C-alpha cells in the first residue's frame, strides 16, 4: 500500500497509459485493454532491445477506470498468479493497494523466495516508482 499525492484520475493515467506504465513497471507491449498480453522484462538490456525472452507474460484481466487494474502473472510452465491494484480517493490524494495473489496453489516452501522477492520489488521499487510518475516526477 502507498499513498500518492495526486488525484485518483492522475494515478489511473500512470496505471493505464502505455508510456507511463513503462516508466514505473518496466514492461514491454503494455496496452490498457482487457485481455491484452504484455511482458515484464526484468533484464534491462533485453527490455531496451524490446526482447521478451525470459520475460513474464501478463494478461490484463480487469480494467475498471479509475478504480482497479488486475492482471495475470505468468511464469513459464507454472500456473498464473494475479496482481490486483486498487485506487481509492483519500484527502489530498489516492490510496493505492497492490495484492499479488494465487500463491495458495503452490507449496509454501517452493514459492517462499519468489514471493518474498516479488513482495519487496512491488512495495520497495514498483509502487514508489508509480508514486513518482503519478506525482509528476
SSE topology string: EHHEEHEEEEH
Number of helices: 4
Largest sheet: 7 strands, antiparallel
Average pLDDT, rounded to a whole number, is 91
Question: What's the gyration radius in Å?
Answer: 15 Å
- Stretches where pLDDT is under 50 for at least 5 consecutive residues are none
The name of the CATH superfamily reads START domain
Beta fraction: 25-35%
Count of discrete structural domains = 1
Helix content: 25-40%
Class from helix and strand fractions = alpha+beta
Task: Tell me the strand order in the biggest sheet.
Answer: 1-7-6-5-4-3-2
Assigned CATH architecture = 2-Layer Sandwich
| Total E-strand runs | 7
CATH class categorisation: Alpha Beta
Gap from first CA to last CA: 19 Å
CATH topology (level 3) name:
Alpha-D-Glucose-1,6-Bisphosphate, Chain A, domain 4
Q: Name the overall outline.
A: globular
Write a structural description.
With 137 residues, the chain is an alpha+beta fold. It has one domain (2-134): START domain (Alpha-D-Glucose-1,6-Bisphosphate, Chain A, domain 4), CATH 3.30.530. Helix content is 36%, strand content 31%. Strand 2 and strand 3 form a beta hairpin. The model has no long low-confidence stretch (mean pLDDT 91).
List the helices and strands and how they pair.
Blueprint: E1 2-4, H1 8-16, H2 18-25, E2 27-28, E3 37-40, H3 44-49, E4 56-64, E5 68-73, E6 81-90, E7 93-101, H4 108-134
Helix pairs in contact: 1-2, 1-4, 2-4
Kindly list the characteristics that best describe this protein.
137 residues; alpha+beta; single chain; globular; 7-stranded antiparallel sheet; Alpha-D-Glucose-1,6-Bisphosphate, Chain A, domain 4
Amino acid at each position: 500500500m502507498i499513498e500518492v499525492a495526486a488525484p485518483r484520475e492522475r494515478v489511473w493515467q500512470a496505471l493505464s497509459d502505455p508510456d507511463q506504465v513503462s516508466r514505473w513497471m518496466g514492461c514491454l507491449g503494455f496496452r490498457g485493454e482487457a485481455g491484452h498480453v504484455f511482458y515484464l522484462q526484468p533484464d534491462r538490456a533485453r527490455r531496451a532491445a524490446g526482447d521478451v525472452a525470459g520475460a513474464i507474460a501478463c494478461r490484463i484481466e480487469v480494467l475498471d477506470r479509475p478504480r482497479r487494474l488486475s492482471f495475470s502473472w505468468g511464469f513459464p510452465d507454472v500456473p498464473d498468479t494475479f496482481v490486483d491494484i486498487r485506487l481509492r480517493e483519500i484527502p489530498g490524494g489516492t490510496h493505492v493497494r497492490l495484492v499479488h495473489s494465487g500463491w495458495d496453489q503452490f507449496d509454501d516452501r517452493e514459492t517462499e523466495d519468489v514471493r518474498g522477492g516479488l513482495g519487496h520489488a512491488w512495495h520497495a521499487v514498483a509502487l514508489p516508482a508509480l508514486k513518482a510518475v503519478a506525482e509528476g516526477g
